[in-house]
């Protein structure tokens, strides 16, 4: 942010005495001192919750059955693919409008695509089903996820770069 873009309340004129003449120099556009950073407790809470999941992962890995029957199986898969479609369309529309928020949509869409690939491959039956899931993951879902992730990183770099 340049000095001219700063809010007026943050720009404070400063005066200094110059040399032996006693002339006073007033800087009209003095750069304000940065505000001290406050710790963000929510960050610590999220870290703690993530670490608390580690023992839970062990419990799940050792106690869940290898197979299960699921109600509304097709609804779950159609819903996931619908979210991916909305994410891709939304990302594309925001990107065409040069809206910086396309990075957020791209990040969410990348994660949805990775999750879809993961569950396609891990729930596929042996044979043609697993071959189809691996082909879809390798040729479509993961490359699209990589593209969306690259868009998200690029948008984040532009948003966070100094002006």
Task: Describe the fold and architecture.
By secondary structure, the protein is mainly alpha-helical. Helices cover 63% and strands 6% of the residues. A two-stranded antiparallel sheet has the order 1-2. A hairpin with a 4-residue loop joins strand 1 (14-18) and strand 2 (23-27). Helix 3 packs antiparallel against helix 4 (128-160). The protein is elongated. The termini are close together. The model has no long low-confidence stretch (mean pLDDT 85).
Rounded Rg? 26 Å
Assembly category: single chain
- According to DSSP, the number of beta strands is 2
Proportion of residues in β-strands: 5-15%
Arithmetic mean pLDDT: 85
Order of helices and strands: EEHHHH
What form results from the Cα inertia axes? Answer: elongated
Unreliable stretches: none
The largest pleated sheet is described as:
2 strands, antiparallel
Note the total helix count.
Answer: 4
End-to-end span in angstroms?
5 Å
- What share of residues is helical? 55-70%
Strand order of the largest sheet: 1-2
Please state the structural category.
mainly alpha
What is the topology?
Layout: E1 14-18, E2 23-27, H1 41-63, H2 73-96, H3 102-123, H4 128-160
Antiparallel strand pairs: 1-2
Helix pairs in contact: 2-3, 3-4
Task: Give short descriptive properties of this protein.
163 residues, mainly alpha, two-stranded antiparallel sheet, 4 helices, 63% helix, 6% strand, elongated
């Amino acid at each position: 942010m340049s000095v001219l873009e700063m809010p007026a309340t943050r720009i404070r004129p400063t005066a200094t005495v110059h040399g032996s003449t006693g002339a006073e120099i007033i800087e009209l556009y003095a750069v304000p001192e940065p505000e001290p950073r406050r710790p963000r407790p929510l960050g610590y809470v999220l870290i703690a919750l993530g670490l608390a999941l580690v023992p839970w992962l062990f419990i799940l890995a050792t106690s869940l059955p290898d197979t299960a029957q699921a109600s509304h199986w097709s609804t779950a898969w159609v819903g996931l693919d619908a979210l991916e479609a909305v994410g891709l369309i939304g990302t594309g529309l925001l990107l065409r409008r040069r809206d910086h928020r396309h990075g957020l949509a791209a990040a969410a869409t990348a994660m949805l695509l990775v999750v879809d690939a993961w569950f396609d491959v891990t729930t596929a039956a042996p044979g043609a089903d697993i071959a189809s899931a691996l082909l879809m993951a390798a040729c479509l879902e993961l490359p699209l996820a990589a593209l969306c992730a690259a868009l998200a990183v690029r948008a984040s770099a532009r948003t966070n770069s100094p002006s």
